Task: structure prediction
Amino acid sequence: MATIRQVQVTFDCANPERLARFWCEVLGYVVPLAPEGFATWADYDRSLPPERQGAAFVCMDPSGVGPRLFFQRVPEGKVVKNRVHLDVRVGTGLVGDERVAALEAECARLVALGAVRVRLLRADDFNESCLVMQDIEGNEFDLD
Result:
């Protein structure tokens, strides 16, 4: 029998806290409490050596069901398309124009947060419509 493991999704990025807070807004995630002994994450961050300050940030599903998201600073910028991406499921159970309307409404909300709309992929014989987007650092994700 397979062992069930928790999953964490890790993002390489330029600004971990900014990107984490963007995804908190997208998914309804929260920033966990600061480590014991620190009133805030900023206090904890200031306790680190200068080269580690601002190097990582995390957010999590407040219900504990969804995966934890970890953001780590890397020196290089994004160059090519993601090999793995998140699908934000906003149109589940919807079809046709009703589905597209739900995707478009969520797209408008996310664009206001700094996301970029890339293109709408209309339903075909195999797939329902989805909307391709990019987060505030250019990482692709889909509204599905």
